[in-house]
Amino acid sequence: MSEKEYITLEDEDGNEKVFQIDAMFDMEEHTYAMITSGDETLMMRIEDEDGKQSLVSATEEEIENLMDAYNLALDADFDSDNGGIKH
Q1: DSSP of 8-57
Q2: Which residues lie across from 56 on neighbouring strands?
Q3: So what's the pLDDT on residue 69?
Q4: What is the pLDDT of residues 3-62, one digit of tens each?
Q5: Are 36 and 20 in contact (CB under 8 A)?
Q6: What whole-number distance in Å separates Cα of residue 62 and Cα of residue 28?
Q7: I need a surface site. Which of 56, 75, 77, 86 has the fewest CB within 10 A?
Q8: What is the phi/psi pair of residue 16, to 5°?
């Protein structure tokens, strides 16, 4: 995603809120989106049913697994940027 992408979500009261899609992740046969609006950050699982996509809140376990994988990727990137030397 080179350009910023946005989606509008509607809460249970019918209020709409615009979120920026910050990142997309594939993990364990699911696709996840990290979205933000102001200081609110949500991790959502993308569900595909009959060709229609919807967003479902990721479970606490899914979020933990995604954050662990993200932190490992950051560490690996940091190591490669510094010639494998951690400071």
Answers
A1: EEE-TTS-EEEEEEEEEEEETTEEEEEEEETTEEEEEEEEEETTEEEEEE
A2: 45
A3: 85
A4: 899 999 998 899 999 999 998 989 889 999 999 999 999 999 999 999 999 999 999 999
A5: yes
A6: 10
A7: 86
A8: -95, 145
